[in-house]
Amino acid sequence: MDDLTRRRLLKGGGATLGAAAFARALAPITEWTDDLSVDGFLQKHYKELSRDEIAAVCKRLEAETLQDYGAVVQIGDVRPQPGVEFAYALNLSVCIGCRRCSEACHVENNHDRATNNSYIRVLRIDKGTVDLAFSDTTYEGAVPRADSYYMPVQCHQCDNAPCVTVCPVEATWKEADGIVVVDYDWCIGCRYCEAACPYHARRFNWTKPEIPAEEINPDQAYLSNRIRPQGVMEKCTFCLQRTRKGKLPACLEACPTGARVFGNLLDPDSEIRWVLENKRVFVLKEDLGTQPRFFYFFDE
Amino acid sequence: MTSHATTYLAFLRRAVSISTDGGWRFYTWMTALTAVMLVGVNAYAQQLGGGMGVTGMSDHVSWGLYIANFAFAVGLAAGAVMMVIPAYLYRDHEMHDVVIVGEILAVAAIAMSLAFVTVDLGRPDRLWHMVPFIGRFHWPVSMLTWDVVVLTGYLLLNLHITGYLLYTRYRGERPDKRWYVPFVLLSIVWAVSIHTVTAFLFSGLGGRPFWNSALLAPRFLVSAFVSGPAFIVLALEACRRYLDVRIPEGPTWTLVNILRVTVLINLFLVLSEVFTEFYSGGSHVASAQYLFFGLHGANALVPWIWFAVVANVVAAGLLLAADKSRMHLVIIACVLTFVGVWVEKGMGLVIPGFVPSTLHELVEYVPNELEWRVMAGIWAMGMIIFTLGLKVAAEVFTGRAVYRTEPGAPVPTAPETV
Amino acid sequence: MASDRLPVLLLAALLGCGGGFSDPSREFAEPVPEGSHDVVIHQPDVLGVLDTDRVDVHGAPVGVGCDTCHGPALAATPQGNPEEMHSDVDVVHGDLVCASCHDDDRTRLRRASGKTLEMDQAMELCAQCHGPQKRDYDHGSHGGMNGYWDLRQGPRSRNHCLDCHGAHAPQYQGGVAVHPPRDRFLRPRHDADHDDPKPAPADASETGAHDG
């Protein structure tokens, strides 16, 4: 056998081995591709879907939830009420840092159980400062401590939201009632919004969420608390699956002291308007110009 | 002359055969790179299957090794322009002969940076969402869309330039200046733009005070003009030893002279950043504090950044001390400064932006073994592209690879140096 | 020339601005029909009842109604030492004494003006001195609520003052925090100045320990 043929044989053998090795190397990908579908791949942006299309998408997602999680859920396309602009206020004199709001969010919004995820983080801050360098989130035990005050932080649904600005595919946007939402089926998972948010409000689905069927909250909305797929961003939506139907958000209902105030800014008789007009409210990191819809105040 | 349909196909076939043929060192090198690439592919498949949670990233440090390498690779691609400027603007003829090395580096580095961004995506199956008109491209508002535009444009520019030059040489023709000089001049501006846009990605975020500095774009550019030339000096040296081409000495020393300046400017910019952060103090110092001195007992990055600073200082000294009889000092300096910039720009810039978090929580990040494997795989891919590009260029530019209408037909006279 | 720029501008507009919904009928929900629902304030069981330490066969706490001793069946001033009779009432309420809130007819309350109040009007008595808190409560910024923010669509229920504040020792007791987040790599802050105190004993919290 002359050199040229042997060389060709070796190359051919090498190429075949390489191709086989490549196929073998790729094998773990099936764990992910099993969750993908052609319909999901081709699905358009939320704003480009007609009523029938979004209804069909929700039906497909309900079927996928049944298959993946064994739970029957209702996913609605819950739209904003006209004449409503939401805002939220939090009374720092009354909050005791019990984290019931964080827990309620975890349950209401179908978060991954293993990570105990929640959209709300409660900061314990030393009295006498507003510098978050003197805060921590891992406190335990009896609350409130005499030397501290407590500040729950969640998405502020900013009017000038950095996360909306930076998204390369417009997967996140501000809706007519002020809520900044994410289309989980459009997000590409680049996490630029997570880097941009000054309030640590955005969360990423680092794995496929795991929730036992009996713990799943079945009243779901497409843009909020339906079970999110792996690899996409999510955030607090002021419980739009509840609030757009006139109900209070889960965090507010869970608060034992009544530190949270929520309502419609456009209603002059609303509780939130009264707080904004009569209490000395402030916002976090005001100098960044994000114009949040989430206000903090002290009673004294 | 024969039609392009014929010659282009022949050119591609010849390129493939050059890429798959060589000495034992070539085969060893390419097999090793392919093996590393396969390791990376497997790690990436594991990441897709298990979710990005299999990496060391978290909601607190949500960008890590991949984006660090992305920033560095874009800088490497921009640094190629440090050959183009002397060659075309200063009419350095010796540099002109080897400028294609820089352009091939640009192609390989852009390919690497696009790969790093892709492996960092949670949903790479949705890349089509970024295509204008078909998806929703949030341009001109989102800096990431600018990055997509400029990186793609730079890749196409350099593919065109290298492809055109190699193809015309292959056909035995003289390249038409109108078909590449304007593109080359455009690539000078474009190289600055790719790294400026990448810097703006970070510096435009008001919520991250460590990045929100006017100095970030200059720092990115200057460190690009360190890493690019350093790599090219090493590549030229490798070409001299392993490729059958004659590489003149002049371009290497032009690049060394450039490096002598840019390494010092880079160090100065780091000094400026350090002074501005620490002199007035306050809470915004926390990230710089974490990086250089550790914060509340968390000090994972401290040895890295000091290594980077020392490496660059030593490299600066070696470069100033080196001369033609002490080429080995140049080699050491280039390796030191290349690694130093990789650490300083990658881990020393991307990670501290997240530590502490926007709510001042302290979560550290250490890339885990899977991330290192993916990174190695992408670097291997980049080196494969670079190696093959250089090998084809060497064969074509020396006239060994040239189109013949039939075997044994006379070879057209080699064109003058363009 | 402007016409040369137009395609670029259009392109930028198309690519840049998101635009609204392609199906405008999807932008808003149907308007809410006018309606009005109630705000219901919970009436706590403690009103007019003195807690004893005893429980009945079902485990429910046994209370003694004020009118058991102070009612018309007995004399207006019952026999016996008041402190002994009310030994489990701890008054930690500023400088107040029994007569500050309780009328001579001990089944009723009395305001500073002399106006008597029934037991179920106790909130008006609290508001007499704690005006700012009552004002905040009335405007939804104290005491919480369950139900609907939009009373056109549903009712709302509110706590009574006494649901959280004991009448005799009103300071809010606090509770035990739900477990902290279990984020990856999040290290708890444990510097010497801020050591977390030991968890309070279980009966100190009326809300009860809750696992996260």
Protein architecture, described:
The complex is a heterotrimer of chains A (300), B (418) and C (212). Chain A is built from 10 helices and 14 strands. With 300 residues, chain A is α+β, with helices and mostly antiparallel strands. Chain A folds into 2 domains: 1-34; 86-297, Alpha-Beta Plaits, CATH 3.30.70.20. In chain A, the strands form 5 sheets. Chain A has a 4-stranded mixed sheet, with helices on one face. Chain A has a 3-stranded antiparallel sheet with strand order 4-3-6, with no helix packed on it. A two-stranded parallel ribbon of chain A has the order 1-10. The longest helix of chain A has 24 residues, at 3-26. In chain A, 55% of the residues are buried. Chain B has one domain (4-397): Formate dehydrogenase/DMSO reductase fold. Chain C has 212 residues and is of the alpha+beta class. Chain C has a domain at 40-164. Chain C has helices at 2-16, 66-70, 82-85, 98-101, 122-129, 131-138, 161-164; strands spanning 39-41, 49-55, 61-65, 109-110, 116-117, 145-147, 156-158, 175-176. In chain C, strand 4 (109-110) and strand 5 form a beta hairpin. In chain C, helix 5 (122-129) packs across helix 6. The longest helix of chain C has 15 residues, at 2-16. Chains in contact: A-B, A-C, B-C.
Biggest interface, chains and residue tallies: A-C, 68 and 61 residues
- Name of the CATH architecture of chain B: Up-down Bundle
Q: If you average the pLDDT of chain C, what whole number results?
A: 76
What's the main sheet of chain C like?
Answer: 3 strands, mixed
Strand order in the sheet with the most strands of chain C: 1-7-6
What's the main sheet of chain B like? Answer: none
Secondary-structure element series of chain C: HEEEHHHEEHHEEHE
Average pLDDT of chain B works out at 92
State the end-to-end distance of chain C. Answer: 66 Å
Shape of chain B: globular
Q: What is the SS-derived class of chain C?
A: alpha+beta
Helix percentage range of chain C: 10-25%
In sequence order, what are the helices and strands of chain B, one letter per element? Answer: HHHHHHHHHHHHH
The residue ranges of chain B in which pLDDT falls below 50 over 5 or more consecutive positions are: 414-418
Low-confidence stretches of chain C: 1-5, 191-212
Number of strands of chain C: 8
Q: What is the radius of gyration of chain B?
A: 22 Å
